[in-house]
Model the fold of this input.
Amino acid sequence: MEDYQWQEFVHGSRLLEESGFLYGLGFVYSTELDDHLTLRPAAEIFGGTVDYEGQTVTRLAASTDTNYFGVKVECDLGRRYRSGRNLVIEPFGGLGLRAWTRDLEDTTLSDGTPASGYPEDWVSLYGRLGLRGSGELSAQKRFFAQAGVKAPLYNRMTAYQSEIGGQDLTFHPGKQPSFFAEAGVRTERFTGSIFYEGIRFEQSESIITIEGLEEFENFQPESRADLYGVKLGVAF
Done:
């Protein structure tokens, strides 16, 4: 379970904010190879409905809900170093892919005008670099922690505005690094942890569309997501 916040900015001013809880289910597998190398694949599905508070380009307030559903897949390669008191340090690097649908529901603007929502498909491929470690708390309990940085390699967002009478547009939001961290406790059968994950996109390049005699500039604004959550797991 994670407390999710999504914000978009134009020229430093916040255009909209979404907040609420998302829920996920996933797995992590870790194995030690030759020469203390480690391989750690992980996969997760997530989704939920969050509150949307924003405004139109004409500054009319809009409130609605946004539905999320997505997947995240990551795979890291690391190397373990062991020291006294059963302490393990593991630098790692890897790749990740996060793909999700963001579906805005219909609403009514502050002046009473109806406004139609539409779905967006997002894909972000990124590299990961970080450090994780663990240590013994007791004979049957260990603490663990990890932290690192994500560097986007490829971003894409498609807005399906044809569902509201417009044109489908595909943007490539700008690449901006972000951070992640997790800390928790592991027993022989169970794990529990708290985590943070950031997602950052710079403003995309503009796409010009023409409707009648008018030209419109379209772009994906600077976007930021912050996820704070709790993970509970069972070891097999």
Observations:
- The chain has a mean pLDDT of 95.
- The chain has no helices and 18 strands.
